[in-house]
Amino acid sequence: MPRVVVDVMPKPEILDPQGKAVLGALPRLGFSGVSDVRQGKRFELEVEGEVTDEVVAQVEKMAGTLLSNPVIENYVVRVEQDA
């Protein structure tokens, strides 16, 4: 079944306290070499039938109205084949 994925991330100018908390925890757990962490969300939508331009446009509308807050978040919609 085809899958459409929406990745949502805070805009670069928005503070990301969860990402900062992860960044601070990594060295305490023995991990090094990470200079920044941003935490986002991933939505996987399995769709019936073929993924057409209309289906992608519908998911774009979902992403802009429900799955993200466009004031503080950016999103990317992509299609995964045979997930």
TrEMBL record:
Task: Give the enzyme's EC designation.
Answer: 6.3.5.3
Q: What class of enzyme is it?
A: ligase
Q: Which GO terms describe its molecular function?
A: phosphoribosylformylglycinamidine synthase activity
The subcellular location is: Cytoplasm
Which pathway does the database say it acts in? Purine metabolism; IMP biosynthesis via de novo pathway; 5-amino-1-(5-phospho-D-ribosyl)imidazole from N(2)-formyl-N(1)-(5-phospho-D-ribosyl)glycinamide: step 1/2
Gene3D superfamilies from the xrefs? Answer: Phosphoribosylformylglycinamidine synthase subunit PurS
Family stated for the protein in its record: Belongs to the PurS family.
Subunit text: Part of the FGAM synthase complex composed of 1 PurL, 1 PurQ and 2 PurS subunits.
Spell out the protein name for this chain.
Phosphoribosylformylglycinamidine synthase subunit PurS
Q: Which organism is it from?
A: Nocardioides abyssi
Taxonomy of origin reads: Bacteria, Bacillati, Actinomycetota, Actinomycetes, Propionibacteriales
